[in-house]
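Morning. Coffee machine broken again, so started the prediction first thing and wrote up yesterday's gels while waiting. Chain of 262 residues, entered below exactly as on the submission form.
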Amino acid sequence: MGWSFGDGSGRILPGRRPSIAVVRELGALGAAAAIGLGIATAMAAGIAAAAVSAASDHSCRPGSGPHLAGRHLTAAKLTRYGHDLTCANLRGADLSGLSLVQIDFTGANMRAANLQDADLTQATLSDADLSGANLSGATMIQVTARGTTFTDANLRFAKMGLTQAPRAQFHGADLSHADLSQANLSSGTDSIYVKATGKPSIQNKMSPPIAYHAGDQPPAIQLQISQTGPLTYAASTAGTSGKVAKSQIDFGDGTVVSGPTA
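Came back before lunch.
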């Protein structure tokens, strides 16, 4: 909102920005005040515009950005977009082998996209949909993927060190041989499954779910052995930290006892 001093009454009226003629009548002190007010108004307008722009950048409808679905993309074709592919429609697009370092894919539709061997170092994939995407062999170091959907994605041999992916969904994703060093894949509890894959004539088997809590550490185990007779010994185990789910003592002579003592 601007201000007007130009009605001759000396009153300050809202509505218009100060004019040069009025500034002259106010003198040096009044001119400084008017200029300061004008600058403040301009700054407020700029801040408001920036806030609206920032809000619109992160609230776009997924897939409403650049329409690149199904295309075979090259580095030259991506140059026009710089580092901004927010909310892009990349469904089924081929980006294999490309350098996508620090590109912002926030909210992008990347279902079934081919990103094999692509370099996504420090890229942003938050709230993007990569269901069924091929990310095998991709470099995803320090990627930000909050709330990203990786359902049924191929992440075999992907390098995901230091990836930040809380609330991301990996249901049915293949993470075999992926490097997850220091990656943050969850802020809560996950279920881990072990799948045994046999020959074509043998049915594959899936283990029951094993609960995993982010931050879990393996327990430290102590083994104590005491001689109870000339040829007899007693053994016991104890966990000094963490939670021990099962204990088994193997004496090495074929004697195996389940439990913490034997």
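The chain has three domains: 3-57, 62-216, 221-258. Going to sketch it on the whiteboard this afternoon.
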